[in-house]
Write a structure and sequence with these properties.
Rossmann fold, Cobalt-precorrin-4 Transmethylase, domain 1, 3 domains, five-stranded parallel β-sheet, four-stranded parallel β-sheet, 19% strand
């Protein structure tokens, strides 16, 4: 029987960003320099396939520095850590490498600079996310107020409405964050905004690519893990811009092709921590059910590269 035709439209840009590339390379270089095992505090990035690959090479993922044996190196995840973590590593004379994404570090520096200027900090982000934990840990406990949604703004209790600044998690929805920022500015007209938007270029670019695709396809697959904030936001953005059948999948094996048998156009993208091979595997899997045609829809070009820490640069 002839298979139905399916056009797969690949979003571009998609997949790995410069911060994820850098973080993975840091772990791999640490393994080459120090030998296995190399310990990593928390998931280096939020992607199951990446973690399994690094584990196979000798990376060991742990929750706390106390789980790292004496004399073994440790890498801090790309999401950033509270200031207490490198301080503890120094106190214990540990070999450590900070893989915090430079764009997350920029938010940390922004928070510290505004605090030194006497401003109370408001962070737009998701409670409990490692990046938010790390950012809030740049200042003494209680010095940063967290808002997750627009409704939270009305409940804020601040010390001085004339002395405020806001920062944001880097992997949020661009549209949702703009709405919350607008609410903050409406309630606190004197609030200091970031000099440059905190949402990272890769998050913004991938969301823009999904917006451009959403009305062109019958369904849209986002390849990424469930604990990946930027991947979940891509599903939300697709639904908000006209693709009700947007969904998240870790890999091709997670896709229920039977439920998609009626579609003729599938949008396909990947979160910033998902490797390109998972996208290729989805296209290959689709070929078992459809006669597949592919097209790439490009909305931006990315040439960002971040330097490796000096300890591992040679």
């Amino acid at each position: 029987m002839t298979k139905p035709v399916l056009k797969i439209i690949l979003a571009s840009p998609r997949g790995f960003c410069a911060g994820v590339d850098r973080a993975i390379e840091i772990v791999e270089r640490a393994l080459a320099k120090f030998g296995a095992p190399v310990y990593v505090r928390h998931e280096i990035v939020h992607n199951k396939a990446v973690l399994e690959d690094l584990k196979s090479k000798g990376a060991v993922f742990v929750d706390e520095l106390a789980d790292v044996p004496e004399g073994r190196p440790v890498v801090f995840s790309a999401h950033g850590v509270p200031k207490t973590i490198p301080a503890e590593a120094q106190r214990r004379n540990m070999i450590y490498v900070d893989a915090t994404c430079p764009l997350v570090s920029k938010v940390h520096h922004e928070a510290a600079a505004r605090a030194r200027a006497g401003k109370q900090i408001i962070l737009i982000g998701h409670a409990g996310h490692p990046e938010v934990v790390g950012t809030m840990g740049q200042l003494p406990e209680g010095d940063i107020l967290l808002v997750e949604k627009t409704a939270d703004v009305a409940a804020l209790r601040v010390k001085d409405p004339q002395n405020l600044a806001y920062i944001t998690q880097t992997t949020l929805s661009v549209d949702d964050t703009a709405e919350i920022a607008a609410a903050l500015k409406s309630r606190f007209p004197a609030i200091f905004s970031p000099k440059k938007e905190d949402i990272c270029y890769a998050t913004a670019n991938r969301q823009a690519a999904v917006k451009a695709l959403a009305k062109r396809v019958d369904a849209l697959a986002v390849i990424g893990s469930k604990n990946s904030s930027n991947s979940r936001r891509l599903v939300e953005v697709a639904k908000a811009h006209g693709c009700a059948r947007a969904f998240l999948a870790d890999c091709a094996a997670d896709i229920d092709w039977e439920r998609l048998k009626d579609i003729r156009a599938l949008g396909l993208t990947a979160g910033a921590s998902a490797p390109e091979r998972l996208v290729r595997e989805v296209v290959e899997a689709a070929c078992a059910h459809f006669s597949v045609e592919t097209e790439t829809a490009t909305t931006a070009e990315e040439r960002v590269v971040f330097n490796i820490p000096r300890l591992l640069a040679t």
